[in-house]
From TrEMBL:
Lineage, highest ranks first: Bacteria, Thermotogati, Deinococcota, Deinococci, Deinococcales
E.C. numbers: 1.3.1.-
Organism: Deinococcus aluminii
Function text: Catalyzes the synthesis of 5,6-dihydrouridine (D), a modified base found in the D-loop of most tRNAs, via the reduction of the C5-C6 double bond in target uridines.
Keywords: Flavoprotein, FMN, NADP, Oxidoreductase, RNA-binding, tRNA processing, tRNA-binding
Cofactor(s) of this protein: FMN
Family in the record: Belongs to the dus family.
Top EC group: oxidoreductase
Source organism superkingdom: Bacteria
DUS-like FMN-binding domain boundaries: 25-317
InterPro entries the record matches: Aldolase_TIM, DUS-like_FMN-bd, DUS_fam, tRNA-dHydroUridine_Synthase_C
Record protein name field: tRNA-dihydrouridine synthase
Catalysed reactions, semicolon-separated: a 5,6-dihydrouridine in tRNA + NAD(+) = a uridine in tRNA + NADH + H(+); a 5,6-dihydrouridine in tRNA + NADP(+) = a uridine in tRNA + NADPH + H(+)
UniProt KW Endoplasmic reticulum keyword: no
């Protein structure tokens, strides 16, 4: 069999992708949806990870999840589906369903989400009872031939990351991502990359480091922690070009026109993927927090972009920065000639 990325069968998805340079798009609930993943993948992200999906919801919740969180965009190939849950049999069934519905490249277990509604059912809660997580990984592995990985924080309120990573590797995790904060820290303080380095040195499986990487330069510096690659989350919102810089070495900063065009493309991908809402039109509301981040140097656009409802609103707001109309050059020439 030939794989789209030119590798042969037999090696795991993660091993194949890690043979290339580049960085990984982080799972981010409310952000790493199909349109964001598509833009990151086009710019060379090694792989992308879906927003977390409840294993229970997937198994017991009918078909609703099929339509949004897990659904791939047409042609999506390098997308890992992240599941959260706490019951091995449910996780195993969720893996089977995710594989049938979502065509994932690999499956990942969420062990880092500190949001209360998730805690009782898994997420970072598993850092307090890691033996449950080991059983979950074993159950997931038993349900698929795809790679199974886990994404952890350093611990619940103290750093237990080496012990937990070793347990996960022994349970069969093909890769471990470490967000260098405890669950108690949530997103405060700075990610502890020394702790991430200790994990990378203590397990034989690849470790991906996550936390506070905002630029290609920072990503390159973080590789010194001995990680196989870095994951980028918040730093990739409105900035898919960070993946191009790391995949190809082309660190050229996009100009305002490319930024504006990509923001508009994001809006169009969003409309195409989600389709009309109850009002009969695709809603841009979920993008209100994202679009201004494409144009950090145009703060004057912010007020308009945080109020958009339709693709047309987005286009109108960005119009001054999109490509000039074909006759604009002629107009400029005419103005220049008349000034002579
Ligand atoms: C809004 C938001 C949503 C997130 N959702 C998830 C998630 O669904 N699953 C997960 O494993 N991590 C999630 N994370 C954590 C990120 O994947 C990442 O580990 C963390 O943000 C640190 O990386 P960063 O500084 O590059 O953003 C989320 C983070 C943010 C900010």
């Amino acid at each position: 069999m030939r794989y789209p990325d030119g590798m042969t069968s037999g090696s795991s998805f993660y091993a194949r992708r890690l043979a290339q340079p580049g960085a990984v798009l982080a799972p981010m609930a409310g952000y790493s949806d199909a349109p964001m993943r598509q833009l990151a993948a086009e710019q060379g992200a090694l792989w992308t990870v879906s927003e977390m999906i409840s294993a229970r919801g997937l198994v017991l919740g009918g078909e609703s999840e099929k339509l949004t969180l897990g659904r791939p965009y047409p042609g999506e190939t390098r997308r890992v589906v992240q599941l959260f849950g706490a019951e091995p049999d449910i996780l195993a069934q969720a893996v089977t369903r995710a594989e049938a519905w979502f065509a994932p490249a690999a499956l990942d277990l969420n062990m880092g989400c500190p949001v209360p509604k998730v805690r009782g059912r898994g997420g970072a809660c598993l850092l307090q009872t890691p033996e449950v997580a080991y059983a979950l990984v074993q159950a997931m592995r038993g349900a698929t031939r795809l790679d199974v990985s886990a994404k952890i924080r350093l611990g619940w309120d103290t750093d237990r990351s080496v012990e937990i990573a070793q347990g996960l590797a022994a349970a069969g995790a093909a890769l471990i991502t470490v967000h260098g904060r405890t669950s108690a820290q949530r997103y405060t303080g700075e990610a502890d990359w020394e702790a991430i380095a200790r994990v990378a040195a203590s397990v034989a499986v690849p470790v991906i480091g996550s936390g506070d990487v905002r630029s290609a330069e920072q990503a390159r510096a973080r590789l010194q922690a001995g990680v196989a690659a870095v994951m980028i989350g918040r730093g990739a919102v409105g900035n898919p070009w960070v993946f191009r810089a790391l995949a190809t070495g082309d660190g050229a900063a996009p100009g305002v026109r490319e930024r504006a065009r990509t923001a508009l493309r994001h809006a169009r991908l969003h409309a195409a993927f989600y389709g009309p809402d109850r009002s009969g039109l695709p809603s841009m509301r979920p993008l209100r927090k994202v679009l201004p981040q494409y144009l950090p140097e145009q703060p004057e656009l912010r007020d308009t972009l945080v109020q958009v409802n339709t693709v047309e609103d987005v286009e109108r707001a960005l119009a001054p920065f999109l490509a000039p109309e074909p006759w604009a050059g002629e107009h400029e020439e005419a103005v220049a000639a008349s000034a002579m």
